Q: What sequence folds into this?
């Protein structure tokens, strides 16, 4: 079948590890289903895979892609939940120490077909396109859990999103606005801040700018470049929810501020299957849509990954079959 994969990792030149070609059709084990992929979205995770980060050397060749929407053999339209827990794990799948994300241990979604455990598909809302549904499993699910499961925010409170145009950031802006939060956003460039405004941000600021007042919660995926600003922006007792560190670990944890202002730092990763179902339902009820900056045929995956690598992406990039 057609597939976009890494033959072997390349830590220094991830694009050199990319192969757009053919891989064997998957065999469907008992308890698993085949999804004929209609759309898949690109994540920074795919660049980590090309670099060999978070994946064992013996797992290659590995088909890229964590996110997908597609059709089961019986015609059911589904969204893939990419957190693969072990068979006997019960409860929150993200807490299974043996869990993996699609394309770490099991082949990913940038292909004609992907196989997943039967529990790892959720029905796609009929009114949601495959392209939009393909954004839900990773960036949007991560944003949903950060905001609604981890932050403890109440409608009417003020949230700061670090980063204006990223996949997780744009999801946080749309979800926060829909839930009645005052959404403040930092972004590095005027055009990216304009994206945030269009999606529902109440105010946008240059990265690192002093805010008019302190906020109830900060949503972090950037890491070193924004961490001190995040800690300085919180009201006493406020919370920073962290799901990524694109620019690496902060040089200072800001411990004095942490204890003196009784701040809370909460980690968040992906979300459960039940949270994905709730997210899809919230999008259906609220007529919410992901911001798709570009939609390309899957055979042009190299263009999509290069845009992500060079910071040229806005919102989500979707690959279609
Ligand atoms: N834990 C999880 O389950 C999980 C799930 C999804 C993603 N993640 C991680 O979260 C991070 C973001 O993912 P994504 O898909 O949203 O990536 P993305 O689409 O590439 O977005 C990156 C964001 O980071 C901001 N940014 C990058 N460098 C910056 C800098 N030097 N200063 C200020 N802002 C900077 C960008 O801001 P501008 O808008 O200003 O360009 C943009 O909003 C990644 O590290 C990813 O691996 C983790």
A:
């Amino acid at each position: 079948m057609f597939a976009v994969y890494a033959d072997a990792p390349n830590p220094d030149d991830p694009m050199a590890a990319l192969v757009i070609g053919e891989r064997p059709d998957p065999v469907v084990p008992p308890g698993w289903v085949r999804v004929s992929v209609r759309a898949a979205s690109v994540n920074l995770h795919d660049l980590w895979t090309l670099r060999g980060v978070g994946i064992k050397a013996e797992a290659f060749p590995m088909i890229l892609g964590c996110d997908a929407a597609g059709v089961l053999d019986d015609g059911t339209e589904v969204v893939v939940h990419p957190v693969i827990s072990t068979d006997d794990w019960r409860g929150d799948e993200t807490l299974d120490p043996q869990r993996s994300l699609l394309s770490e241990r099991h082949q990913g979604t940038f292909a004609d077909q992907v196989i997943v455990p039967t529990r790892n598909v959720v029905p796609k809302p009929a009114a949601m396109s495959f392209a939009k549904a393909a954004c839900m499993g990773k960036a949007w699910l991560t944003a949903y859990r950060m905001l609604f499961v981890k932050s403890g925010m109440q409608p009417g409170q003020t949230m700061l999103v670090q980063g204006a145009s990223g996949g997780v950031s744009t999801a946080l802006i749309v979800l926060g606005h829909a839930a009645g939060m005052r959404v403040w956003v930092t972004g590095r460039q005027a055009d990216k801040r304009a994206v945030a405004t269009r999606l529902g941000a109440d105010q946008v600021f240059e990265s690192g700018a002093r805010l008019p007042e302190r906020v109830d919660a900060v949503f972090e995926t950037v890491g070193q470049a924004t961490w001190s600003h995040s800690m300085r922006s919180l009201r006493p007792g406020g919370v920073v929810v962290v799901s990524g560190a694109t620019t690496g670990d902060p040089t200072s944890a800001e411990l004095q501020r942490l204890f003196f202002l009784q701040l809370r730092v909460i980690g968040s990763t992906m979300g459960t299957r039940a949270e994905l179902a709730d997210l899809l339902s919230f999008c259906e009820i609220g007529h919410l849509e992901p911001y798709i900056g570009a939609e390309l045929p899957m055979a042009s995956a190299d263009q999509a990954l290069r845009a992500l690598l060079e910071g040229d992406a806005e919102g989500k990039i979707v690959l279609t079959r």
